[in-house]
Amino acid sequence: MKKSFALSIALPGKHLLTFEARQVMLPSKNGYVGFMAGRQPLLATMEAGLITIIDIEDHQILFGTTGGFAEMLDNQATLLCDSLIEVKDLKLDEEATTPDKIYIRDTSHMTEKQKREYVKLLMINRLRKTSTTCDKSHKTITE
Amino acid sequence: MASLRDIRQKIGGVSTTQQITSAMKMMSTARLGRAIEAINLTHAYISKFEHMVLDLKTELPDFKHPCMVARPVRSSCIIVIGGERGLCGGFNHDLNRFAKGVIEENTAPDKKVVVIGRKAIRFFEQKGIEIHATFPDLTMKTLDNELFNVSRTLFELYRNEEVDEINLVYTSFASAVSRYLTSIRLLPIDISTLPPKPPTKVLLPFDFYPSPQEIFNQLMPRYLRNLLYRAIIESSASEQSARMAAMTSATDRAQEIIDELKLDLNRSRQALITREIAEVISGSQA
Fold this sequence. Notes:
heterodimer; A: ATP Synthase, domain 1; 15% helix; B: alpha/beta; 60% helix
């Protein structure tokens, strides 16, 4: 059985990001869900939160999203994100002011800007605790 | 015959105009390039969305979302996407006339006209057509922030049965030299008109998080937003291509006028020289 699956992240008006992934963790409505290769077909909504991808070389790649949809079918995962925040989008000077503990909040009534700020805090917090990066190369393609 | 000074002044004036039209042509070309790239990227994104809608429908064939069910039309919303600026040939004129025709042909007792684009807004105001809402200055830069609110408002109007259908009128972009006026129905969605999806191998049932109804409720405003986004950037690309064509012909025409004026200038100068020589000869003979 194949141990990896094709993962593509699509954004409105942006290039498609593609990965060969072993595992992906997503922020769903009822908490984080993870899926691996060979999973039963899935269609889910995504809330504002972190997307963690583990690629075939076991590197963790971190993104933030403000919401969207995820689909897994035929060992191919597609994430349709409203917006995507990469580690390079974070300002390093924000790290010093970020609290140690970020409480999980209901983001359904937040504006897009508030969601972005909240997700950035989550990302900074995660980066502080782990050695997660998103500098690993991924292919950017245009359909 | 005009004096040499007058002709030189005219040549100077036309050259300045030619420089402006040439610069506008270059700007339109650059903007058109950006708009075409945005269209291609949006097509990829929307096709993924459509695949999700089709998967949802294939998995649950009897599932009926209000966005898919047609109801008797008492109130119709017509969104017109027009141009922002002039100097683009017949682009604004053609679209405004077409949109006016679509509105007049619509048989719904109540019509809510939503107009995007400054030129179209001015046209409908001048014609005395009642406008429900206007959105001037929706450029590609401000589109991301504004459009989500616009699509959410439209979706709420439809869901609360304040309107029974949503139509869209815009100029669709085919290539840099061809565009066509389009009138489509956004809501209710006719699933049968969506492009088919390639067949899949897996026949297992889908897991839905949280539920198909909830997924659809979140999917639809975004789908509507993306269709609107695509229509706006297609309209923008069409406007830029029309402006590019108009400015190309204006630049070419300016060159023709300059050539004609230069010919006139040379003729006048030659006539002046000939006359002066004739005067010198006749003076010496006398």
